[in-house]
Amino acid sequence: MFALVLLLSIVVAGQAAGQPSSTTSSPPIVFTKNELNEHNLVWKVMNKSCFGKWSGTLQSFRMNKTTNTPVFNDNDDELLNFRLWAKADTNRDTGTWTAWNLQRKGDEFIVPLRRLPAVSSRPSQLKIGFQPGCVLRIPFNFRQVPRSVIELGYWGNGMRRTVVLEYQMPDKQKRMELKDVTLVMQRAVPWYKNAFFVGNATVAHDIQILPRKAPSNVEDVVKRNRARKPIRIERVELKSMQRVVTTKADMTDDDTRGAVEVLESLLLRLGNNECAARSSSYDVVLPNGLLASFPKEMLAKSSSNAKKTFVLAHGWKRFGQQTFQTLVIDFDVTTGEAIVATMYSYK
């Protein structure tokens, strides 16, 4: 099942899920300036950080509501060496995404990529990019899709860390619960090994890149990041695709205070697992190194919260300096619409 979830994410990278392909007779939609800017930025991030050859593995698990810990399936002992080659064509506006060993050893999937999706109506999935190498995919409205998938990928420092969260609503129930979590961890194939890359091969060493359990030193993770200060805020209003960037020099006291509270709140929840059973969210350091807080349910029989919030964080090392990024995504529970995605960067 986890492979099918990830395959969906690969296909959506090429074109919006549930939308007509470029072979239909309907004319393509005319995007607004803001939408064009977002599509161009995602393509830029993919060219800079995602395109290349990658090798690693992926695994799916459920979450224990009481302990906030992963629950692995007994038949998941043998992981596959998930391998990937993402590249742009010569015209630079299209490309291909080739995946091997996704569902079974030796299989192959080739998916076309486009800078601009060829659709005749607004895509049901939104793709957002943040520098230096973050790609986000979320439903525009989680109430209007058969299954709600949140995907975040951090690509950088020669490593890919992706989490895919799938929510489903069981038949005849008025709640949408987390079904499973899929993690991907891959390392970039260095340039001097590119000529020797064989897609459908299996490299056992690369499978071991993804730990079977989360880091045990959560207290160290919390302590190490607690003193960080905000240096940049990027906010994307998802209905209009209006992006506002605030640098450290332009931050108001309220901006700084809000950014600090976002990080402190995440670290506080990660360090207080005693309240896991009563919490409405899973607060966990994932095995692939991402810090995460995500709802146990998108819809509940009774809820006093008007919105549901996802928080995913990761640290980068660029030019010898450490940068910590925290992404916050808000959904309106009443309408189901995605409201805003905000990326906070800290030093």
Write the layout of secondary structure elements.
Elements: H1 2-14, H2 33-50, E1 52-64, E2 69-71, E3 82-88, E4 94-100, E5 108-114, E6 125-130, E7 134-139, E8 148-156, E9 159-168, E10 176-188, H3 204-207, H4 218-225, E11 230-237, E12 242-247, H5 253-270, E13 281-285, E14 291-295, E15 297-299, E16 307-318, E17 321-332, E18 338-346
Antiparallel strand pairs: 1-2, 1-3, 1-10, 3-4, 4-5, 6-7, 7-8, 8-9, 9-10, 10-15, 11-12, 11-18, 13-14, 14-16, 16-17, 17-18
Structural description of this entry:
The protein is α+β, with helices and mostly antiparallel strands. The protein contains 5 helices and 18 strands. Strands 1, 2, 3, 4, 5, 6, 7, 8, 9, 10 and 15 form an 11-stranded antiparallel β-sheet that branches. The chain has a 7-stranded antiparallel β-sheet with strand order 12-11-18-17-16-14-13, with helices on one face. A hairpin with a 5-residue loop joins strand 3 and strand 4. Helix 4 runs antiparallel to helix 5. The two termini are 38 Å apart.
Radius of gyration: 20 Å
Biggest sheet statistics = 11 strands, antiparallel
Distance between the termini: 38 Å
Structural class, please? alpha+beta
Shape: globular
Q: Count the strands?
A: 18
Low-confidence stretches: 1-8, 10-24
